[in-house]
Sequence to fold (527 residues):
Amino acid sequence: MAILQVNDIHVYYGSIHAVKGVSFEVNQGEIVTLIGANGAGKSTVLNTVSGLLHPASGSVVFDGKDLKGVAAHKVVEHGMAQVPEGRRVFLQMTVEENLEMGAYTRPRDEIMGSMDDVYRRFPRLKERRRQIAGTLSGGEQQMLAIGRALMSKPTLLMLDEPSMGLAPILVEQIFDIIRELHAGGTTILLVEQNAQAALSIADRAYVLETGKITLSGTGAELMASDKVRQAYLGG
Amino acid sequence: MVFLSYLISGLSLGSVYAIIALGYTMVYGIAKMLNFAHGDVIMVGGYICFIATTNLGLPVWLAVILSMAACTVLGVVIEGLAYKPLRQAPALAVLITAIGVSYFLQNAALLIWGANPKMFSPVVTGTLQLFDGQLTISYVSLLTIAACIVIMIALTLYINKSKMGKAMRAVSEDKGAAQLMGIHVNRTISTTFAIGSALAAVAGVLYCSFSPMLMPTTGSMPGIKAFTAAVFGGIGSIPGAFLGGILLGIIESLAKAYISTNMANSIVFAVLIVVLVVKPTGLLGKYVPEKV
Fold:
């Protein structure tokens, strides 16, 4: 069953037509990845799904509800959380405050349990919970960004370039975490430039090129595709 | 002893600046705009308190509450009507609008209350004599300093501990990420204006208690000085607004006493220029690099 359906969305930045009729769907329990080069429109698609940007035409249907006209700050209440590109944790707030912000729409008495879950998953964050997020390393900030998104107990977790700017060992760790979250029942939409890593964990994948989807298939199919290998996997 | 009395009067004047500067700095921190109409909200606060006590005969405490309530509404309405439609507009358009709102408020006050100055009677009267009468401190000064301290503590707690306060800090850092958390950015900005304007009413009442000539232009001088104080302390920083306000008040008071009454304002602004040349972010301001 499709939990997220994106139907023929067109998105403009001023006069620039950044996304030209993109359609895809994410089924309950899947890991779906959108891969593509820098500037292909991956983040634009994700920001449109989460309501930060509004499509000129087309629709985003989440859990049976059309999100047209739903303000960005309301989308999280529908069960969708985004780990934005470049992490965007609140650098001047403590780790714990960042996590509290992640649970902003939830009642106070439910937050503690979720926070314990996040700390269990990321013991480093627990050690540093009183520290200002700006003092964390890049990998720790990415963990915080993921933990923060988990605080809203999302049914769909969207990650935008979680491997960006991280050392290979950390990239591996982040992908392990994504796999674990998926095993725990969270549906995942992953946007990545690191096609190799993304395809290796994805159930299904879409290739985005200059605002259009040019290929789609299972992770394994795309990994085997000549076109994808030449363009994104280095031959 | 004379020096001490100048220092105390500087401290209380600075406390008024600090309370006003808070409004500037909070709004700047969260909405990234300079609300130049903030000074005129002070004037409105003064008039409301004046009318409530003089014309309606209400007790002072009630007049102050009424004035705070009226200014809170005024601040939220200004934000909603004048600034909110410009959220995506260039900063310059917002700045010009703020100046427009400032003139609008001054002229509206002129129409409603006339150009003749009203004599504002201080909210508290009397003085405290210390050291066998060598040091005289007015109760208004003490009240002002006390109000400033209470506001500083309450606001710091609010920003650091309350859910809305944390949301304000989140919005001030990254509006987009704050929205992804489910924070209603516009409501957070409105709340900031509400708090800033309520504080402006308090500042208006205290300011008029020192400087009792109440006119439609009464708010502009303390407004511009408090803006200076906010920049001096580091705009966007709440402790910076307090420090900037209090230092500015003390500098002004000592300059008046020891250098020249006429030159006092020039000296105050000269100090600002020197500080900004040496430390462009202000005393407690942080340098935040623009990310690409």
About this structure: Chain B has one domain: 2-278. Chain B touches chain A at residues 163, 166-167, 169-170, 173-174, 176-185, 291 (CB under 8 Å).
